[in-house]
Specification:
Structural class: mainly beta
Shape: elongated
Radius of gyration: 14 Å
Strand content: over 45%
Largest sheet: 7 strands, mixed
Number of strands: 11
Helix content: under 10%
Number of helices: 0
Length: 120
């Protein structure tokens, strides 16, 4: 059984910062890519940022230069540092990880999400 648990969401004013964290636990053989997605009210879930097991990163255009994704492979965690937040960053943020529970068996897992609200 694998679980992803997010933390760090909340209410912040425009221009402020938040740091999201996600911890993977359970029977884990290895973790491949990890990422963050978000879903705004009335919109589809979209990719925010992804990081490979080797540390290569990719960001969606709206967050480039403002958000930074990082991971700690020893602790099975992925973080998202969000700076210069805008109202359009509001939404539920989901952690995502491609995990092998045994050699040769892998699937994608999702956390339950954490709410980020950017408002004055």
């Amino acid at each position: 059984q694998v679980q992803l648990v997010e933390s760090g969401g909340g209410l912040v004013q425009p221009g402020g910062s938040l740091r999201l964290s996600c911890a993977a636990s359970g029977t884990i053989f290895s973790i491949n890519a990890m990422g963050w997605y978000r879903q705004a009210p009335g919109k589809q879930r979209e990719l925010v940022a992804v990081i490979s097991s080797g540390g290569s990163t990719n960001y969606s255009d709206p967050v480039k230069g403002r958000f930074t994704i990082s991971r700690d492979n020893a602790k099975n965690t992925v973080n998202l540092q969000m700076n210069s937040l805008k109202s359009e960053d509001t939404g539920v943020y989901y952690c995502n990880a491609d995990i092998s529970v045994t050699f040769g068996y892998r699937r994608v897992y999702w956390g339950l999400g954490t709410q980020v609200t950017v408002s004055s």
